[in-house]
């Protein structure tokens, strides 16, 4: 397992070791001991999520607030996405900054999104199966979101806006400044 820092403290890109042979390949896609040693965290995931989306679907930017905040380890089982994590940790020096990482079944990369981040992704391939581990349970009442095309965040989703497909919830999401007005 290789780990790479991003410009956002605690947000890492991980690449599992892949063992190929004449049959195909094997990899440990996740190992708690290895993960915590490499990230220097004491993370225990409790819920796995999976979603399937066609090209242009954008899910996000979401987070759960307060005691139900979730760290996520995200990866793509099929297809390709641009995955985005936005730092909204109140005291962070990189508050409001984001990373955008191309994750695909091909490149086998994973992104660790710590608690205190907004998260979202857009599908670039014809379809994508997205899989992620969460270190806290789903709690609908704690859900919060920011519009993914927010002008202040200025995220480059690398796809024409005309191709995007958002849920009504995401279309109606507040702007970054409306959600974090006190900053
Ligand atoms: C997140 C979640 C949702 N649901 C139910 C609630 C709805 O009936 C249905 C679809 O939920 P939603 O439209 O919020 O799904 P996404 O738009 O993919 O949301 C996710 O999108 C971005 C990428 C994230 O990082 C979050 O994990 C999550 O917010 O699944 C559950 O039952 N459990 C869950 O953990």
UniProtKB/TrEMBL annotation:
<comment type="subunit">
    <text>Homodimer.</text>
</comment>
<comment type="function">
    <text>Catalyzes the epimerization of the C3' and C5'positions of dTDP-6-deoxy-D-xylo-4-hexulose, forming dTDP-6-deoxy-L-lyxo-4-hexulose.</text>
</comment>
<dbReference type="GO" id="GO:0005829">
    <property type="term" value="C:cytosol"/>
</dbReference>
<dbReference type="InterPro" id="IPR014710">
    <property type="entry name" value="RmlC-like_jellyroll"/>
</dbReference>
<dbReference type="InterPro" id="IPR011051">
    <property type="entry name" value="RmlC_Cupin_sf"/>
</dbReference>
<dbReference type="GO" id="GO:0008830">
    <property type="term" value="F:dTDP-4-dehydrorhamnose 3,5-epimerase activity"/>
</dbReference>
<protein>
    <recommendedName>
        <fullName>dTDP-4-dehydrorhamnose 3,5-epimerase</fullName>
        <ecNumber>5.1.3.13</ecNumber>
    </recommendedName>
</protein>
<feature type="active site" description="Proton acceptor">
    <location>
        <position position="62"/>
    </location>
</feature>
<keyword id="KW-0413">Isomerase</keyword>
<comment type="similarity">
    <text>Belongs to the dTDP-4-dehydrorhamnose 3,5-epimerase family.</text>
</comment>
<dbReference type="InterPro" id="IPR000888">
    <property type="entry name" value="RmlC-like"/>
</dbReference>
<dbReference type="GO" id="GO:0019305">
    <property type="term" value="P:dTDP-rhamnose biosynthetic process"/>
</dbReference>
<dbReference type="GO" id="GO:0000271">
    <property type="term" value="P:polysaccharide biosynthetic process"/>
</dbReference>
<dbReference type="Pfam" id="PF00908">
    <property type="entry name" value="dTDP_sugar_isom"/>
</dbReference>
<comment type="pathway">
    <text>Carbohydrate biosynthesis; dTDP-L-rhamnose biosynthesis.</text>
</comment>
<feature type="site" description="Participates in a stacking interaction with the thymidine ring of dTDP-4-oxo-6-deoxyglucose">
    <location>
        <position position="138"/>
    </location>
</feature>
<feature type="active site" description="Proton donor">
    <location>
        <position position="132"/>
    </location>
</feature>
